Amino acid sequence: MTRVFKLALILLIVPIIFGACKAEKAASVHDNQYANEIQNLLRQMTIEEKIAQMSQVDPGFYQSADALKEAIRNDEIGSILNVTGAENVNELQRIAIEESRLGIPLIIGRDVIHGFRTIFPIPLGMAASWNEELVRESAAIAAKEAASVGINWTFAPMIDVTRDPRWGRIAESAGEDPLLNSMVARAMIHGFQGDDLSNPLTIAACAKHFVGYGAAEGGRDYNNTPIPDYYLHNLFLPPFREAVNAGAATVMTAFNEINGIPATGHKHNIRQILRKEYGFNGFIVSDWASIEEMIVHGYSADGKQAAQQALEAGVDMEMASRTYTDNLKQLLDEGKVKMEWIDEAVANILYVKFQLGLFENPYVDVSLADSLLVHPQHLEVAKKLAEESVVLLKNEQNTLPLKKGTKVALIGPLAHQPYEQLGTWIFDGDENDSQTVLDAFIEFNGSNNTHFAEGLKYSRDQSTTGFSDVSRAIAQSDVVVAIVGEESILSGEAKTLAELKLPGKQEELLVLAASKGKPVIMVVMAGRPTGLLQTQHLADAILYAWHPGTMAGPALANLIFGNSVPSGKLPVTFPKGEGQIPIYYAHNMSGRPATADNWVHIDDIPVQAVQHSLGNTNHSLDYGFTPLYPFGYGLSYSSFEYSNIEISDNQIQVSETLTVTATIKNTGEYTANEIVQLYIRDLSASYVRPVRELKNYQKIELQPGESKQVNFTLDKSDLGFYKPDGTYIVEPGKFNVWIAEHAETGLMAEFEISE
Ligand code: BGC
């Protein structure tokens, strides 16, 4: 019997047999193009079948593959995560469709975070490219590769704004700024989902983690996130609003408790803000066991109450824990949850399954993977994105680029680590695909010119026995390229660090390299801003490469030997040290701001100076008030001159648009890209506004000597802010606007919004 015929038959006959399961159309079950099909299914489903749709399991929970299959056959599961392999997935799907009573297909989830088999830079690196189109393309490739092995849903993008580099999951985010996180949200959702989710090569996206997870206190993962509503609306929520606008099919709730209520049980945030105000109409999944963890938080007395609270809050599907499976029926019988909530959750899930075309076309073509995985075109995009993600932090005396044929001592624990360069969350990446810096240097620059001695076997290595080889390699070379940083396992989920300095004996390795009197180029591969205060003076040039992915080697070789020019800019402020955290560009102004003229260094305070606070300002006595590198910072082999800022008017009405222009000239010798940034400040408002807010940017290419005028427009969607209750207002008054290279510089103009 064909699937479609079977489904039609079920739709006709089953309601008669199972008339008792009749479900009225719940008012909250939204209208959509599949509303009839969804209603028909809901009418036929038993309560157990409904609850099954709301349950996502990992195959590891079952004692055997057969036990998993039996559970699918018995209609106990609506979704599985962490199964791959086209044939395997097809078989599970076949059982769901042909052997379960209603034949509802499974939705297969997986963490496809920055690529599937072809690994792109970590998301923080992608954000450093500020290249929306390239990020979109990388997600479209990840979707194709993942779909080819049967995955139809990724748990990405993660769009948790974070201002704490100690938090390991900063690697997965787009950093500290809501606009950049919104860009990555939009780009990835468009990439994963394309414009037709039923296309077999697109997959459903999942905007996560809703909400506030990136504010974990102390950067310690899973920690509390006290977030005043004013900051929630202006900082943490905007990327989710953007994700909804971009059509995200699903949203994942977060592990954290926010202002005393676990995010997974937060009815106001989920039902009021996400559903009602933003109009989200896909489905909401919990994070892994985050419903059950509400018991550990001390919010739910037991699994039964946790299930009740999560469903009431609006969580449609439970990942990993079993509180829905174990308790929803009883809760319904006792009148503690409403059938309407259950129907609504199931309808949301079925809606996405229909959108994915799973009822029509549930199986994956098993021949696809061979032709798609690590396709040369995918590797090209991975190389390009890796190149654009790298940020040049320092380049004294134009140390970079190197001439081809330069004799290079290639040292450091990440120079030839095919696995470590891939970064966090690479379940399906294969280190055998990786091209390392050593591979690429040999290819680009010849083995005779490449003197390789890693010095340390891995980033945390405490043994310096390899240092003598390093000295020998340097003696044979003209310049040192040191690939340092952190192994991939040191960033990502639950990988908080209290100290950011390079682990192991890497500082000693750099000291050794610098002692030889040859130029030192330091390349950092890491999942976060590492502490460079102690080491930056040891290098003549620094390239910050994040974890660049499969094509790390060719991308870095291209940059180092000048085949391409660095253009990345920092998506997060680099602190001088942990004691400066949090430090971010978009802070509110204190009443006593520090400036270059008024801050006092600890050594300048006389012994037993008179104790008073007059003249004191908002800074640290040791680190001052500026970070090591500001948000938006990044050098080029070329140089740019910004001039002639002009605004279309210096007074506008709220409803009017303002145009801001400036001229950018390439004053250097290389054709290069420059990321031109637009910031504003609302100078006085009913709530203190940040000293700067990024409102737009353009990445432009300029030939040597070429000038271009960049034009930006600002309208009321840029010039207002959210009040703590979530209403958006634009207030009359004076504003500053900058067109800038980064958050601490720029050409400024002033305008006023009149009454
Ligand atoms: C993470 C999620 C992830 C999920 C499934 C959790 O631990 O917080 O981001 O999607 O696991 O692997």
Description:
The chain is α/β, with parallel strands linked by helices and 755 residues long. The chain has 3 domains: 104-355, Glycoside hydrolase, family 3, N-terminal domain (TIM Barrel, Alpha-Beta Barrel), CATH 3.20.20.300; 369-560, Rossmann fold (3-Layer(aba) Sandwich); 640-753, Immunoglobulin-like (Sandwich), CATH 2.60.40. 30% of the residues lie in helices and 17% in strands. It contains 22 helices and 26 strands. It has a 6-stranded mixed beta sheet, sandwiched between helices. 55% of the residues are buried. Mean pLDDT is 95; it is low at 1-28. Bound molecules: beta-D-glucopyranose. Residues 111, 155, 208, 287-288, 493 line the site of beta-D-glucopyranose.
Shape: globular
Helical fraction: 25-40%
What value does the average pLDDT take? 95
Structural domain count: 3
Number of strands: 26
**Main sheet attributes: strand count, strand direction, barrel closure:** 6 strands, mixed
- Based on secondary structure, the structural category is alpha/beta
Distance between the termini: 70 Å
**What is the name of the CATH class of the largest domain?**
Alpha Beta
Second CATH tier, the architecture of the largest domain: Alpha-Beta Barrel
The fraction of residues in strands falls at 15-25%
Q: Count every helix, treating DSSP H or I runs of 4 or more residues as helices.
A: 22
The name of the CATH topology of the largest domain is TIM Barrel
Low-confidence stretches: 1-28
The ligands found in this model are: beta-D-glucopyranose
Strand ordering within the main sheet? 11-16-15-14-12-13
Name the CATH superfamily classification of the largest domain: Glycoside hydrolase, family 3, N-terminal domain
For the CA atoms, what is the radius of gyration?
Answer: 27 Å
